[in-house]
């Protein structure tokens, strides 16, 4: 099988025109302030995701009919599964209580293991949120400055890159650093790496050789390279490997007991983890296991951590209840920084006014904030959204290819429309 980009959603999600970024940072953040931790509540979601084909009890309060079991969203997921265009788990939570939980398809077709409420999925670029939180934790401790340049922390980069790319640029995809997965020779080399340390170090060497695509801060381009560099900075500043830092300071405090950067051998062996099935580059259109020939040893700060749907609910709760960051750094991380082109309304699709934040996209949808990230790769299609002022969270995890051009499209857009029409 031809080797492909293991988290390609990066170079197709974000588009913006030329603009100065830094002047927007303070004004937009202050204007949006105060909303980001307000919806956090107590309680657990242990067992919140039901077995395939069952629904959670509606939470108290106003639950739109379209989001209840048997409603519009439930019917959409069922149809996608019946058409064999969806395999995975969805979980809708309101006020910390499950409203709808569904699992369809197989986690491992060869061993006949079905997807279930606690199945672990590859997240693709949702991983970037964990990296941004790690950066914010170290900034909160005074060990990282958002206006500091790359060269403050890492050596070996060209002088113009080291002196002009700031932490802020890398977090907001305005660095010009591009996508290391597209660099000549990267994939061939990546399949020879035999340790997590080698993955981090050798990927960084490829990034060091890549030129800047534009002057940092003058325009935007989604950048896997920038997020890998941020992970390397986390490792350098903290004294831990990137992977251990996220395990100890993000997954652990958030109670994300099934989340990890599993290696490819662990992924193959663990029956809890869904295998990614792709039909990309298959002349017959038949799906094959993308673990063979697409994913190298381990994910990176830019993508491919693995987690269950309940774990993502736990992460969101920990973040908004300030278990991971102090309130001011939670707000700084999640509040909008750089506006992107508005997305016009369409049939069943509300107009959206998106901003890049630090890792997340923070959008205005029907006059409500929607915060989250999506991910896509061969056999990976994911989306995490939360709605701070409405106290909803929507998790969508699939081990099939994304069927459309945008990772968060389809069910994620439908959920956004139904949740924000209140």
Descriptive account of the structure:
The protein has one domain: 3-Layer(aba) Sandwich (Beta-lactamase), CATH 3.40.710. Helix content is 32%, strand content 17%. The protein is built from 14 helices and 16 strands. The chain has helices spanning 10-13, 22-31, 72-82, 127-140, 159-164, 167-171, 186-190, 196-209, 224-238, 242-254, 264-269, 309-320, 327-334, 411-420; strands at 15-16, 88-94, 97-104, 106-108, 113-114, 120-122, 220-221, 277-278, 288-289, 306-308, 338-339, 352-356, 361-365, 368-377, 380-387, 392-398. The strands form five sheets. An eight-stranded antiparallel beta sheet has the order 3-2-16-15-14-13-12-11, sandwiched between helices. It has a two-stranded antiparallel sheet with strand order 1-7. A hairpin with a 4-residue loop joins β4 and β5 (113-114). The N and C termini lie far apart (47 Å). Keywords: Membrane. Residues 41-52 have a biased composition (Low complexity).
């Amino acid at each position: 099988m031809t080797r492909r980009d293991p988290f390609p959603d990066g170079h197709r999600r974000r588009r913006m025109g030329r603009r100065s970024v830094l002047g927007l940072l303070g004004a937009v953040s202050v204007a949006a302030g105060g909303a980001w931790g307000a919806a956090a509540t107590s309680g657990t979601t242990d067992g919140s995701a039901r077995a395939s084909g069952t629904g959670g009890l509606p939470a108290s309060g106003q639950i739109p009919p379209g989001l209840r079991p048997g409603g519009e969203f439930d019917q959409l997921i069922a149809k996608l599964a019946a058409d064999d265009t969806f395999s995975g788990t969805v979980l809708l939570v309101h006020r910390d209580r499950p409203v709808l939980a569904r699992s369809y398809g197989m986690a491992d077709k060869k061993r006949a293991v079905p997807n279930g409420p606690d199945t672990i999925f590859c997240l693709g670029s949702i991983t970037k949120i964990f990296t941004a939180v790690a950066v914010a934790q170290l900034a909160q401790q005074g060990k990282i400055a958002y206006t500091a340049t790359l060269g403050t922390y890492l050596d070996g980069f060209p002088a113009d890159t080291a002196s002009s790319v700031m932490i802020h640029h890398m977090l907001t995809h305005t660095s010009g650093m591009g996508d290391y997965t597209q660099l000549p020779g990267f994939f061939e080399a990546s399949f020879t790496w035999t340790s997590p340390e080698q993955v981090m170090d050798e990927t960084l060497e490829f990034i060091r050789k890549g030129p800047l695509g534009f002057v940092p801060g003058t325009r935007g381009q989604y950048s896997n390279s920038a997020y890998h560099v941020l992970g390397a900075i986390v490792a350098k500043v903290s004294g831990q490997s990137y992977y251990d830092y996220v395990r100890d300071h993000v997954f652990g405090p958030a109670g994300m007991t099934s989340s990890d950067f599993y290696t490819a051998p662990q992924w193959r062996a663990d029956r809890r983890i869904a295998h990614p099935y792709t039909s990309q580059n298959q002349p017959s259109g038949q799906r094959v296991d993308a673990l063979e020939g697409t994913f190298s040893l381990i994910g990176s700060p830019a993508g491919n951590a693995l987690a269950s749907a309940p774990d993502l609910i736990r992460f969101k709760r920990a973040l908004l209840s300030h278990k991971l960051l102090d309130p001011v750094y939670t707000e700084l991380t999640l509040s909008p920084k750089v506006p992107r082109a508005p997305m016009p309304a369409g049939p069943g699709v509300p107009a959206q006014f998106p901003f890049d934040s630090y890792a997340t996209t923070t959008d205005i949808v029907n006059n409500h904030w929607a915060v989250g990230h999506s991910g896509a790769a061969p056999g990976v299609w994911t989306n995490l959204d939360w709605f701070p002022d409405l106290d909803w969270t929507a998790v969508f995890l699939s081990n099939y290819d994304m069927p459309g051009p945008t990772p968060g499209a389809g069910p994620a857009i439908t959920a956004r429309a139904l949740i924000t029409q209140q």
